[in-house]
Amino acid sequence: MHDLLEELGRTIVWEQCIEDPGKWNRLFNDEDIYRVLKINKETPNVQAIMFAWSRIKKRPLKSADLKVMSNLKMLIVDSFVADSFVASLDLPDSLRYLYWPRYPLESLPSNFSPENLVEFHMQYSQVKKLCKKDQILVNLEVIDLKQSWYLSELPNLSESLKIVSIDLFGCRSLVEIPWSFQHLDKLTHLDVGDCTSLEYLPEMPSVTGHMLKTKKMPKTS
User: Fold this and answer.
1) Under a CB-based contact definition with an 8 Å cutoff, are residues 115 and 92 in contact?
2) pTM score, two decimals?
3) Residue predicted with more confidence, 208 or 74
4) What total number of domains does the chain contain?
């Protein structure tokens, strides 16, 4: 039943405007996504996009400016994407849900403001430092960076008071969990299993997820 409803939903979206996929609010078909990215014009109707890079990578598309999708809220990339393509990728500040396993760069685009992000899932990514220190993630609820082996620094979460779940399993370059985490009152799940370099983990009574026992280092000024 779920598959039938999903297919019906896609059909309704497709019938909104057969000739111009840029006027749809959801893009799922790789051919349609390629057409929209190649034209590279303002497409404010698009709110969700999901594509497999492996099925469009052989086409003559060297860059993509997703900022023209000024109301894009959900981006799902379900396969590996070439570094050269991602380096030129711009993300819209409207983005709320980002699912991009094996993200190939060391950080999110420098001109991307992640204030509206609610969830991001970037397992097995190449990320070292997710974003700039001065960026405040006030709407963030879920972080999934498991098996991001090169992650060495977490973003500023002191103002992320809505956050409930953080998965850092297998982040083997991560040395410390910031002391400010103990003030995240809604955080109930923190997975730091197999974080082999972790030296500091503050006490967080509200957390119920898997915890790695580590030496508690004193807070430094």
Assistant:
1) no
2) 0.81
3) 74
4) 1
